[in-house]
Amino acid sequence: MEHMGIEPGRIHFSWVSSAESTKFVQVVNEVTEAVKALGPNNHFITKEAKVA
Amino acid sequence: MLGYIDKIRQISKGLIEDKKVDMIIGFKKGTMPMMNEPCLVKSPKDVEKLVWDSNCGINLANYLTDRKERIGIIAKGCDSRNIVTHIIENKIKREQLVIIGVPCTGMIDKHRLTSMFEGEIEQVTEQNGNITIKGEDFEEILKKNDVLQQNCSVCIHRNPVVYDELVSDLVEEQDVDRYEDVRKIEAMPSEKKWNYFDDLLSTCIRCYACRNACPLCYCPTCFVDESRPQWVGKSDDSIDIRTFHFLRAYHCAGRCTDCGACERACPVGINMRMFTRKLEKDCFEQYGWEAGLSLDERPPLDTYKPEDPDDFIK
Amino acid sequence: MSDWEPKIVAFLCNWCSYGAADLAGVGRMQYPPNIRVIRIPCTGSMSPKFALAALREGADGVWVSG
To answer: ipTM beyond 0.90?
Structure first.
């Protein structure tokens, strides 16, 4: 995805076991931070059909 | 390359006459220059129809999917790799096939030639590595190596990887840097990449010729035809187009042999190989995998190894 | 612009991260409200089209967790 121009950091992958609630919270924080830093997604949004 | 045809016809005739195969899949002369058509030959007298020159860029492995007959197939380097992929994916059995290997020196880029001349090209002939192009009011001789399809000029598997018969001696493999242009894109910042692909795909009309020409695209229902749920819009909106090309490239990850059939089939000359080749490069760099080289090895995306790269996972 | 909050679509595996999210809830842990959770049966069923669909529908980020 990065290859076609989606910023790295918009897509995240992680591995959290069902017992790791602390890690879960930590990853949520990290992901939110990263996406916040990038700002709103401008690419790849389907625009609403124009109504004539 | 031209001399191959006698040998091809001779082998094909023998195979049909000895009832070793029910049909031969090869090429016949097309109705337009540079457009040889695939053809199925079932009787010895039709063998004369078969041709071989530098316009046989279509990937014949495409015609093997789920066939039940015994088939003799003419295979260049890339065709043979796609045949291997077909066998690995259980789309055909090795026992059904007699592979007539053709060492290949590359195919002509018809998009490029067409755009080089104003008028309509009426005749293309080749001799000793030179190509003669004739139109109504022009005639020009070009070196074949200068007008190769881009995937052929960076091809490193010109010789078939599996074959039962061989029509000539193997040709020398090229030693080239396959991914120079992919690296160029990788080095761009995100915004520039986005614009590059926007530009690349701007002419796409969603005709799906690339999908139909591709030997890997044999799903009974393609994801673009699914409507419940509908993952990809059917319009020619730039996002829909991009989604299509992008997902198609993903479906070909670890399977694509860069045969160039998609690009060749494209009526507007889009180089969609920029998508597939990135994934091909990744497969090679991360898993040391090149598609279709061996019948005994499973592809990286359906095996697990503890040493598989996982840096992207937190 | 300062009050913009990202929308992040989280694809969580039923057996791993979804459980972790549940546990985080039971443990009354605090975390940002930006994620919208979609439970998937297993991360093995994750497909690139899900991620693309999320972005197409206006998500700012995608998070896949097994």
So the answer is: no
